[in-house]
Amino acid sequence: MNEPRLDPELESLAAKLAAQSPRLPAAESQALLYQCAFSAGQSAASRNLRRWQGLAAALAVLLAGACLPLAALRLPMAFHRPAASDGEPSPRALADAQADPAEIDVDAWQQPSDSSRFLEQGLTRFGQVDPALRSLAAANLSRRVLDQQ
Amino acid sequence: MRTCLLPGLLISLWSAALAAQEPITLSIHPRAIESPALKYRLFPPEADLKSGNAVPILLRLPWEQVNYVSSDKFRDLDDWNSRPLDSPEWKDFRQSFPFRFYDEMKRAAYRREAAWEYPLSEEPPFLILLPDVQGMRQWLGRGLSAKIRYHLSRGELEQAREGILVGLANAKHISTTPFHVNQLVATAIHRIMLDRVGELISQPDSPNLYWALAALPESLVALDRAADFEGSAFLLTFPAAADLDQPRDAAEWKKMLQQWHELNRYLNRAPHDQIKEAEGTIAPLAKVARGELPGLAGLPADRVAAMSDEEAAVRWLVHVRLSYDQQEAAALSLPPREALPRLKQLRAEKAAIESKVGAARIELRDTTAGYVAMWSLRRRIAALRTIEAVRHHLARYAGKLPANLTDIADVTLPLDPLTDQPFVWKVDGNQATLAAPNLPVDLAPLGPMGQRPGFLEYRLEARPKTD
User: Fold this and answer.
1) Option in B11, B130, B233 nearest A148 (CB)
2) Cβ–Cβ of A130/B123 closer than 8 Å?
3) For residues B54 and B172, what is the distance between their CA atoms, to the nearest angstrom?
4) Between A and B, how many residue pairs show a Cβ–Cβ distance under 8 A?
5) What's the pLDDT score for residue A13?
6) Distance (Å, rounded) from C-alpha B117 to C-alpha B173?
7) A129-143, B122-136, B393-407: which has the highest mean pLDDT?
């Protein structure tokens, strides 16, 4: 008995569908994609983590190396007492003698060595101003206006 | 040559604005308090302000009118301020003032911010140049005042009122810079604008500005900010003074003293030869310093004795200057009842210090007159409000002046802010005098020309209502 013939268009569609690769259900497809992404991220993260660990270790070594000489300088300074001297004590020795070790400013080495440079530079710039305009400086104007009252 | 004149012009504005000792004569006409109360304003309402910076607008003004600002018309603007309002010359005013100036001033007046960008923390503040302050007083003070009077001469009262608003708002922009001199220039411009208010309310059809005056900002200048900043300005100028306990050798102390001298040379008013002489002989200064430093700075006597002359001198100068500046800043933040006695004590300290070491070595300021001038703005506003209350009374009682200020109903009357006392009121027929109580001379010394600080007296003539 002959099989009944299908419509040619339907046969063509069936042939095309048969040629397609099998597809997973949507849920399984999502799960598979998630696993792929997770694995990729884990791999990248562990690479980054190893890099950061290496960098942190290198910095720690550098920091320790930099601190040792400073500590060696700081400790004698904190506990230094000027030796008795017949001569006039230097201002630096006097200042050290006044200072309590507990009050030593551990950040003092960070302060600008010459805070007078700010004024020095300002005075130099002001000296270059036309003398006729120097009376327009804030302090001069205030004083002269107040004088006139 | 012209640049030499700039400070002189600035000072002449200040002197003219503050030294006036003549009573102000005004005609007043009946006018009830306006309804709604703030129908007329003398300061931009908060809701109308636009965000943005007023300063570029103001500073651009001269560049938009380069030919005008270098012309005689610009320099002679002040002539219009002494011209009677009924002078026929007012018809020519439009040729003397570019009205485009006013449009930009008005735009600036309605800006919420005013950032002048002075290098306050980048340069020693004492040495910062303020050439723009000079320009501001010319076009915001004299120029705008002349324009307001032009409108008054033509009976254009609304334009005159708006001009006053623009002047007050822009002068307040000037006061955002925390230098004393900016407050003083702003004070002078405010004072000019309040004089124009007096002229405006003496016009027959002027609105009653009682509430417009009451709604002005509590203070038109920033005296508290200026006091605070100037109290720190010495340290900002001379930062090494902030860390005197940092170890220094003799050469470093010597260098600090040299810097003090150089600064003093630029800023001290003493004759040049006296300053040079003071620089050459530090022994008298060092002697005073060694005697006082143990008590002043709490330094052990043996440590002071071991100091070089330069170190002792610098430590003493810095200590005295810091102490004086900060006491003065604190006093200026007080109301007059407390501030004036404190400023009197400081004047005595200043005189004692200068007599000990010479004013050529250290110059200290006396800001009493500036303080009184700034508080006198509030005095003037309170007096003008009182006059408006009198005009309200005239409207209610058929043009009859009140025998006493306490007879005025419906509105409250302000006290004089400088003395916390009522204004003095005297009536003689249709004439009246409204005067502010005088300040005691020991608390507010007379000026160099004998002027009484804060003097204010209005002579009023009541006129009938116009139809």
Assistant:
1) B11
2) no
3) 11
4) 153
5) 67
6) 13
7) B393-407
Residue A109 is classified by DSSP as G
Tally of domains in chain B: 1
Assess B238–A contact: CB distance below 8 Å, yes or no.
yes
pLDDT at A54: 77
CB B231, CB B330: distance < 8 Å: yes
Please tell me which residue of chain B has the smallest CA distance to A146: B370
Work out the mean pLDDT of chain B and round it to a whole number.
Answer: 91
Q: Is the pLDDT of residue B117 over 50?
A: yes
SS3 A110: helix
pLDDT in tens, B135-162: 787 888 889 999 999 999 999 999 999 9
Q: Rounded CA gap, B124 and B237, in Å?
A: 4
Strand B457-462 and strand B431-435: the pairing is antiparallel
What is the SS3 assignment for chain B?
Answer: CHHHHHHHHHHHHHHHHHCCCCCEEEEECCCCCCCCCCCCCCCCCHHHCEEEEHHHHHHHHHHHCHHHHCCHHHHCHHHHHHCCCCCHHHHHHHHCCCHHHHHHHHHHHCEEECCCCCCCCCCCHHHCECHHHHHHHHHHHHHHHHHHHHHHHCCCHHHHHHHHHHHHHHHHHHCCCCCHHHHHHHHHHHHHHHHHHHHHHCCCCCCCCHHHHHCCCCCCCCHHHHHHHHHHHHHHHCHHHHHCCCCCCHHHHHHHHHHHHHHHHHHCCCCHHHHHHHHHCCHHHHHHHHHHHHHHHCCCHHHHHCCCHHHHHHHHHHHHHHHHHHHHHHHHCCCHHHHHHHHHHHHHHHHHHHHHHCCCCCCCCCCHHHHHHHHHHHHHHHHHHHHHHHHHHHHHCCCCCCCCHHHCCCCCCCCECCCCECCEEEEECCEEEEECCCCCCCCCCCCCCCCCCCCCEEEEEECCCCC
B335 assigned to some structural domain: yes
Residue B374 and residue B175: Cα distance in Å, rounded?
Answer: 11
Least CB-CB distance to A141: which of B10, B19, B239? B10
- As for the ipTM of the complex, it is 0.78
Q: Tell me the pLDDT tens digit for each residue of B176-224.
A: 999 999 999 999 999 999 999 999 999 999 999 999 999 999 889 999 9
Contacts of B463 (CB under 8 A, 6+ apart): B27, B28, B29, B204, B399, B430
pLDDT of res. B260:
92
For residue B389 the two structure tokens come to: 């209350």
Place of tokens 């032009």: B150
DSSP A20: S
Angle at B343 (CA atoms; ends B340, B345), nearest 5 degrees: 115
Tell me if B44 sits within 8 A of B101, measured CB to CB.
Answer: no
Nearest CA to B16 out of B433, B451, B458, B459 is that of: B451
Three-class SS of residue A137? strand
User: B298 CB near a chain A CB, below 8 Å?
Assistant: no
pLDDT score at A87: 42
Going from the C-alpha of A119 to that of each of B179, B255, B259, the distances in angstroms are 19, 11, 8
B458 domain-assigned:
no
φ, ψ at B66 (rounded to 5°):
-60, -45
- Cβ-based contacts of A89 with chain B (< 8 Å): 306
A124 in contact with chain B, both atoms CB, cutoff 8 A: no
**In terms of residue numbers, what domain contains B263?**
229-368
Looking at the domain assignment, is residue B99 inside a domain? Answer: no
